[in-house]
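Reopening this one. Same input as before:
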Amino acid sequence: MFHLGLIINPLAGVGGSVALKGSDGADTARRALALGAVPRAGERTLQAVAELAGLELRLSCFAGAMGESVARQAGFEPELVGAAAAEPSCAADTIAAARTLAEHGVDLILFAGGDGTARDLYAALGDRLPVLGIPAGVKIHSGVYAVTPSAAGKVVAMLVRGELVTLADQEVRDIDEEAFRQGQVRARYYGELRVPEEGRYLQHTKSGGREVEELVLDDIAAEVIETLEEGVFYVMGSGTTVQAVMAQLGLPNTLLGVDLIRDRQLVGSDLGATELLALIGDAPARILITVIGGQGHIIGRGNQQLSPELLRRVGRDNLRVIATKSKLKALQGRPLIVDSGDPALNHQLAGLIRVITGYRDAVLYRVADY
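Same output, byte for byte:
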C-alpha cells in the first residue's frame, strides 16, 4: 500500500493578503494575524487531499494543525508519528516531521508551504526521499510545487494508482524577505529536492524578473493608459510590466505589492485584501496583472491581496492581463495559471483570455483549469 507522509506549515502564506510579502519568522506571522490575516494552508491542503478520496493508501503525519486535522477532515484515519513542540509550529517542527516521516518509511511527503518550507524539507532530507509541495506561501520561486493544490493531489493520486510518473530533481530557491519588502529581489539557490515530475501539474522555477525590452514595455503601457476609464478603480498588480504603466503615469509604484489608482491618481499604495475591498466598495473596477516569468501564474503568486472576493466582485471580463510576447513564448505553450485559493473560482477564470502585448497588439492565451 502506498505510504504518504503529510506536513502542513499552518501559517504559510499568512502574510500575503495583508501585504507583508511573506510569512517567514514568528514575528511576521504574529503581525499578519494581528492585521486580520486568516491562515489558509490547511484549507489548501484539504483541496489537494480531496483528490485522493476513494484511493487505498496509508497516511502518516504529525498531530494537530501540522497534518492530523486536515487528514481527518478529508476522511482519513492518519497514523500520528509525533507532534509540534509548541503551537503554532515552527521551522524546527517541519524539519523534525520530515525526518520522522522518513524514518517511518513513507514513499513520498506531501507538504504545504512556501519557499521557506521547501528549504526546511531540503535541510531535513536532501534528495533522499521524493516530496511534492502544495503551494500555500506568498513567494514561490522553487520548482518543487504543483501549480495548484488540486494539481498536487492529482499527481499523488497518479502515484497511488501506480501510474508511471518521472522523478526529477528540482531547485529549492528562496529570497531575503526583508529586501523583498523594500522592493529588491535577492533569490538564492539552496539545493534540489526530488519531486514527481508531471509536466501539466508541476510548477517551473521562477525565471528572472526585469525585462530588457523597454520599448515593448512602453508600448504596453501606452495601450493600457489610453484605455483607462474615468471614475473606474484600477488595481495595479505587482511586477515590472505593471511598473512600466505606473512609470508612464508618473505615479509611485510598489514593485512587489498592489496599488490602487482612479482617474490617473494614486488612491492607495501597497494595499492588503481588506483595504482593497473597502476602498473599491461597489464602484466599477478593473484589475491589471502580469505573468510570472517561467511559471505562467497570473493569480496566486505574490499577489494574494487579490482575494477571491475581490476577483468575483470585479469579474473575469474586467481582468487586464499584460505581458511581452517573449515572456509568453518562454512558456513554450504551457497555459497561464490561476491559483486563487478557491477551486470553483479557478474554474470560472479558465479559458482563453486576452493578453495585451503591445500598442494596439494583443493575443488570446489559454488559462488552465486545474
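So the earlier flakiness isn't reproducible anymore. For the record, The CA atoms of residues 146 and 202 lie 4 Å apart.
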